[in-house]
Design a protein that fits this description.
491 residues; alpha+beta; five-stranded antiparallel β-sheet; three-stranded antiparallel β-sheet; 41% helix; flat; Phage portal protein, SPP1 Gp6-like; Portal_protein_SPP1_Gp6-like
Length: 491
């Protein structure tokens, strides 16, 4: 017999253990990670520069590959109408066109994206498919079969209102197994949890699917951005140093030694500042404040004269900011290499690249995207299997086994069109060839094929009428009912 209380405690413990990592990864994604080190007691201008020094490189690295991940359709061993129904009822019915990005982001940033599948009593043909936060869901796998979930734990907070209108937040959680779903609610006092519902699981499967792009040999999900944190901090530190140098040492400074700027009277005594009563003004330490004599303001037609035989004036050279810029550029290039993102995405050093040069620059990112499509594609196939079961298909029969990904790679459009034209000339179906066009989706290709057929029929009819006008008759379009019409004869 399953001990659901023990599973609840285990799930809560697992989520609690991962929460510090989750918060840290979110902070780096948002650019709210720790600032570069600055000594205590610095002025406000230093802390302002410290805030300016942070650049969210990790966020850009996350966006670069994920913006190329877009599901455009599904294929199975069923007919095209069944695949189209799956797309409309399951995918678009759950607004997954936009929700898929959140799933990929969680998988890339936190190592686990989570999707929940459940039957829809209001519309059985359109099962519920929802994105879930990995901060609130834990999935435990079979130690023998690392792809088979044994149970899952989810926690959330519901908002209720008492009679007085006061809003009350009620923590809840649920444990899912293949056979049952058990829901708990936290008691009003202490740390007790009460079992409030226990129902059968209609799917016969744990209804959560994880999207894990990087899984270790011990089956642990690993964040793909965590190895980038030290490099992000190094770049922030160098940017902080650059801003400090630009603020305080980017210009040549003049130094004067051996000169006492305090004003003296005819007897050589120091003159002090006084208030309206003739009393000497004192500083915070209780010392009288002297009057400072200005040697004058520099100008092209002015002399600056310092009294005293020991007075010396010289320049301090400005800092060379290019040294900081070169180090920052080197660190960003290393960050790009580690993350498999082309350096021009981060540095912007890209101009007049040929198609071959563009393909070479994009090759590492293309390999990363291919790996992500492979891992995430298997997860979407499992989601479609569970959705098929939720829709009433026994054992998920006929579920979509192949995911059609949109082509998001940056390639030369002229080369693509040339290649597609040659494929069609060799006998490849137009629909298959046109699906290779950038931005092509299954729905677009179907519309293109229909429009092309309509145009062909219209052109054939036009030619047919023109020929019939000259000869007194026409020949029917093969497979059409044009031959059933009355002969055109002569006009």
């Amino acid at each position: 017999m399953v001990d659901f209380e023990a599973l609840r405690l285990e799930g809560a413990s697992r989520l609690g253990a991962q929460r510090p990592d989750f918060v840290e990864e979110e902070s780096y994604l948002r650019g709210e990670h720790p600032r570069p080190f600055a000594a205590e007691g610095l002025g406000r201008e230093y802390y302002a520069l410290q805030e300016m020094s942070v650049a969210p490189w990790v966020r850009l690295i996350v966006k670069a590959p994920l913006q190329r991940l877009r599901v455009d359709g599904f294929q199975s061993d069923r007919d095209a109408d069944a695949d189209r129904a799956t797309w409309q009822n399951v995918w678009q019915g759950n607004r997954l066109d936009s929700a898929q990005r959140r799933v990929y982001t969680d998988g890339f940033v936190h190592g686990r994206g989570v999707v929940f599948v459940w039957a829809n009593p209001e519309d059985p043909e359109s099962p519920i498919v929802r994105h879930e936060s990995p901060a609130n869901v834990w999935v435990e796998y079979d130690p023998v079969d690392s792809y088979r979930p044994l149970w899952a734990y989810k926690e959330w907070t519901e908002t209720t209102y008492e009679q007085a209108g006061r809003k009350v937040l009620v923590p809840r959680c649920a444990v899912y197994t293949d056979d049952e779903v058990v829901t708990f609610m936290k008691g009003r006092t202490g740390n007790s949890w009460d079992l409030i519902e226990q129902v059968a699981n209609p799917l016969g499967r744990v209804p959560f699917v994880e999207f894990v792009p990087d899984r270790g040999t011990d089956n642990t999900a690993r964040s793909m951005i965590r190895p980038l944190f030290p490099m992000q901090r190094a770049i922030d530190t160098m940017r902080f140093n650059l801003l400090i140098a630009a603020q305080f040492a980017a210009y040549r400074q003049r130094v004067v030694t051996g000169y006492d700027p305090r004003l003296r009277d005819a007897d050589g005594a120091i003159v002090y500042r006084k208030d309206e009563n003739g009393e000497a003004l004192l500083d915070d330490a209780g010392n009288p404040i002297p009057v400072i004599a200005s040697p004058g303001r520099p100008g092209v037609d002015r002399w600056i004269v310092f009294p005293g035989a020991d007075t010396k004036v010289w320049d301090l050279a400005e800092s060379n900011l290019n040294n900081y810029v070169n180090v920052i550029k080197m660190l960003v290039q290393q960050l790009a290499a580690i993350s498999q993102v082309p350096p021009q995405y981060l540095l912007g050093d890209m101009a007049n690249l040929s198609g071959d040069a563009l393909d070479a620059a994009e090759s590492t990112l293309g390999s990363l995207v291919t790996d992500l499509k492979r891992e995430f594609g298997d997860s979407w196939a499992e989601v479609m299997r569970l959705a098929s079961i939720a829709a009433g298909k026994p054992k998920g029969e006929g579920y979509a086994t192949e995911i059609i990904w949109g082509d998001g790679e940056a390639r030369s459009f002229a080369k693509i069109v040339d290649g597609i034209t040659k494929l069609i000339q060799t006998g490849m179906p137009r629909s298959a060839a046109w699906s290779m066009l950038p931005g092509a989706t299954t729905r677009k290709v179907e519309r293109w094929v229909k429009d092309a057929n309509d145009e062909s029929i219209a052109q054939y009819a036009t030619d047919l009428i023109a020929g019939g006008t000259a000869s007194g008759g026409f020949e029917a379009w093969p497979g059409s009912n044009l031959g059933d019409q009355e002969p055109a004869g002569t006009i």
